[in-house]
Known about the structure:
Blueprint: E1 2-6, E2 16-20, H1 32-37, E3 40-46, E4 79-85, H2 106-122, E5 131-133, E6 139-141, H3 153-159, H4 163-175, H5 196-202, H6 207-220, E7 225-232, E8 236-244, E9 249-252, E10 259-261, E11 269-276, E12 281-284, E13 304-306, H7 332-352, E14 360-361, H8 363-378, H9 386-398, E15 399-409, H10 413-423, E16 433-444, E17 448-460
Parallel strand pairs: 14-16
Antiparallel strand pairs: 1-2, 3-4, 5-6, 7-8, 7-11, 8-9, 9-10, 11-12, 12-13, 15-17, 16-17
Amino acid sequence: MIIEKHEDPYFKSCSSHSHIRKNWLGSIVFPFSALLQQSEISGTFQVNIPPVLLGYTWSKTYVSPKEDNNGQNLKECIFLNIFATIEPQISYVTCNPELDKFSDLTDVLERAQIFKKTCKAMFPNRRITTTVFNSEGIQILVTRYIKALNPPQQFLDMFLHDSSATLDLIARFVSLIPIVPDILDENDGFDIWMTSERCISLAIGNKEEHAILLCNFFLYFGKKALVLLGTSMLEGQVAYVLTQETNEYLLWNPLTGQCHKQFDPFCPLQSVDCLFDDGNVWFNIQQNNTPMAVHFDYLKESFWKQLLPKNFQGTKPHTIQPEEIIYCETSKSMIEDLKNRIERTLKRKMMEWRPKQPTRWNRQCTYILRKILPTLELGTGSFVSSEEESEFERLLQLYWVTGFPIQMPYTDVESIIDAVYQTGIHSSEFPQTEFALAVYIHPYPNNILSVWVYLASLARYQ
């Protein structure tokens, strides 16, 4: 945004200055590995916008649809056309795993290897994962990772009051677990997967471990859920969770917590390749594997090829998951110390990023933002109380205020600094600009943290 300031109203053409002010509205993020796995990223994608954008309102001349004909809520959504590619194209190495000597149930694993080769011969570009290595280096069937597991107690208490909202919050909880970056190898045969208990205790996991954890939580609540392997236009190779409702299928992204209906035109999932639960693995043999075209009735052999036939006489592998997950409480003192450290660090960085301009902090606005942040995590309807609202109204009479909250899982302080820097809020050249910054950390069990940073820029009216 470029703002023109005139020194003298009677000689506008003679003396004026332009000031640059960047206002961050939202973001779309995709990993570099997604570009390596596919030649290009092209399509229309939903922009992640914060729940509040200070200084902005939706245009009254444009009426956004409340929902499309598939029931997808599109009110107050922003979409962006993206095309990204790499020139020249970069290739990466793939390999074909053989049956490992440190394996259990060799007869089943041999069947799994033959099944995988058969599927790859039919559709070479589709993903099929039948076996992985556990943390002890033993090759096992992926079905052994699926078992109903208990989520934290706070979600169990909530489920009695609002089951639908509870499932959304559980998906959000799983999305807060930091993710292990992709390695540049599309081979699924040498993957090492942790159990859900290990994923929770270490507070980290890969895409498949996130999907397995979310699937196991859904199974605990009696949902019919399976892990789905496929590809996404934005993320490359992905693992989703498929749930079946009364008359529709839902696709859950465990890395974002978002839920898409099967016929959602803005769902980033590009292909449906493979499904698995605690009893079997199914490979999609339908010619069209886009989510909208796929028949998810995986019991029909004309649509899905299954690893273990119905009359299979072998021993059913037992799960490697525990009976239940034991959670530990996150230290409140640690949270308070971390919040103060992040706030001090961000303020120091803001001043370093503005070496030629003074950085002034507005304490009144900071106080209001600190009150707002906890309500954003809880998703309550009213963001501010009447007292804070009146204080904020007084600020708006004196200042032109723009700002936004950003939210992210906690991995380290550097990632938070980078996220704030990318917004460009520090680059405002408007004279007499003041800033407000507030940090809030919402703790979940096992040191899984949701970090909120509220940033605001205030320019006093002339």
